[in-house]
TrEMBL record:
It comes from Planomonospora corallina. The lineage of its organism: Bacteria, Bacillati, Actinomycetota, Actinomycetes, Streptosporangiales. It comes from the Bacteria. The chain crosses the membrane at residues 36-56, 68-91, 103-122, 134-157, 185-204. Keywords: Membrane, Transmembrane, Transmembrane helix. This is Transporter.
Length: 208
């Protein structure tokens, strides 16, 4: 019997199967950690700046022009969106198949969804007071993000991603009902801080 044909023990066979399964998972399932870290940083800094400008009662803690805070938030969110799209697009598998197509379509969903948000906000924003205009932009954007997080978790069966998206949707709704200042605080601390913490925990745990 050749060396290549030596029969493996049950333990060795099981270990080989687990090893190959892990490799296949890394190749075909996108790593969600970059999403958590990129979006967490964008929300923590962007919404943190908006909160400092608005304050909980409408009295600013720091005098920052609204245009600056909104540009900061959406600039950082655009970078996070790029990270999301590239992560889903560039799956590490050289095999073209259903998994790669899902990643490509999911990545494309982000810019199209935000394009719709911007059109709606530009159309309706002028009818609202200044503070409510910012809330409209922020709440619609976070609604899109939470839905796409839940969709990503459902597509790749990543339960923490789905749960975080659902929690983000609840925080967004509560903040929108409470007012601009509270919404910014919840999104900065609960959304941004929670996303960064989740990403760091997942990175610390190592490969999926």
């Amino acid at each position: 019997m050749d060396e290549d044909e030596v029969e493996l023990s049950p333990q060795e066979t099981l270990r080989l199967i687990e090893q190959q399964s892990s490799v296949a998972l890394d190749q075909f399932v996108p790593d969600p950690v970059p999403h958590y870290l990129a979006w967490g940083a964008a929300w923590l800094v962007g919404f943190g700046a908006i909160f400092l400008r608005q304050g909980l009662s409408g009295t600013p803690y720091v005098e920052i022009p609204q245009a600056v805070t909104m540009a900061l938030l959406f600039g950082l969110m655009a970078m996070a969106m790029l990270v999301s799209a590239l992560t889903m697009w560039q799956l590490r598998s050289p095999v073209r198949g259903a998994s790669q197509q899902r990643g490509m379509l999911y990545g494309l969903a982000w810019p199209f969804a935000f394009l719709a948000v911007w059109v709606v906000a530009l159309r309706l924003g002028p009818f609202l007071p200044e503070a409510e205009q910012g809330l409209l932009w922020a709440a619609l954007s976070m609604l899109v993000v939470s839905i796409l997080y839940m969709a990503g978790g459902a597509i790749w069966l990543v339960r923490p991603m789905f749960v975080f998206g659902a929690a983000l949707a609840v925080l967004n709704a509560v903040g929108a009902a409470a007012g601009p200042g509270w919404h910014s605080l919840l999104m900065a601390v609960g959304g941004g801080g929670g996303s960064i913490a989740a990403g760091l925990v997942m990175r610390w745990k190592g490969p999926r």
